[in-house]
Design a protein that fits this description.
The chain is mainly α. It has one domain: CDP-alcohol phosphotransferase transmembrane (TM) domain (Four Helix Bundle (Hemerythrin (Met), subunit A), Up-down Bundle), CATH 1.20.120.1760. Helices cover 77% and strands 3% of the residues. It is built from six helices and two strands, in the order αααααββα. It has a two-stranded antiparallel sheet with strand order 1-2. A hairpin with a 2-residue loop joins strand 1 and strand 2. Helix 2 packs antiparallel against helix 5. It is elongated and about 80 Å long.
Length: 223
């Protein structure tokens, strides 16, 4: 059996392999003693580049007509690994901004949506990504990067302007929690509506089959 490995799948694989590097950069002591934020800037760069590949691989797969079963498997796996790695690491890296319960809510939402989509696929329908989910992805990038940078800087002094790095990080992470809960509810409502319609259609088909069978039985002459 030949497994299709193409450019979109290679890009997805890059996102997967970036996960251990992100964890290593956030957990290593190599940057100890550095005072210019090398660790924070390196981790932020890795996460931003990995997040960019999330949209790039899907775009290329559709544009080049290279949507494969392998890609459909690896893409959500890469997303979940990146999100889980980032927020689990941040619980240890910046616990004063990202407590453990926040990470549980955010990561739990990802696995809930994946579970709903898996059940939906078995039932023969799909749950499309909503605009709210796409906005959540943007907030996710901002929140993770801001929290990483807030480990080193509370404020950035840019000329006469003071940029509140930690304030942005706290605001973004709370917004991320709210969006995770709201989007999870949105996906669940959409899933329930679809599954309910599917159940109704199944009952209707069974009823028609039962009625047809009864009519057929009546037409059979008695011996």
């Amino acid at each position: 059996m030949c497994i299709a490995v193409n450019l979109p799948n290679y890009i997805t694989s890059i996102r997967i392999f970036s996960v251990p590097f992100l964890i290593w950069v956030l957990a290593t002591d190599v940057f100890r003693g550095r005072t210019h934020g090398e660790q924070e800037l390196a981790a932020s760069t890795i996460f931003i580049l990995a997040s960019i590949t999330d949209g790039l691989d899907g775009y290329l797969a559709r544009r080049r007509q290279q949507v494969t079963t392998l890609g459909m498997l690896l893409d959500p796996l890469a997303d979940k690994l990146l999100i889980a790695a980032a927020f689990v690491s941040l619980v240890q890296y910046t616990p004063w901004i990202v407590p453990a319960w926040m990470a549980v809510v955010i990561i739990g939402r990802e696995f809930l949506v994946s579970g709903l989509r898996a059940i939906a696929a078995q039932e023969g329908f799909t749950i499309q990504a909503s605009d709210l989910g796409k906005f959540k992805m943007l907030v996710q990038i901002v929140s993770v990067v801001a929290v990483i940078l807030a480990h080193r800087w509370t404020y950035w002094h840019l000329g006469g302007f003071v940029f509140p790095v930690e304030g942005v990080a706290r605001t973004a992470i709370w917004l991320m929690v709210v969006l995770s809960l709201v989007s999870a509810a949105h996906y669940f409502i959409a899933f329930w509506a679809k599954i309910d319609k599917t159940a109704i259609r199944r009952r209707q088909r069974r009823r028609r089959v039962f009625v047809l069978n009864r009519r057929k039985d009546k037409d059979v002459p008695a011996i």
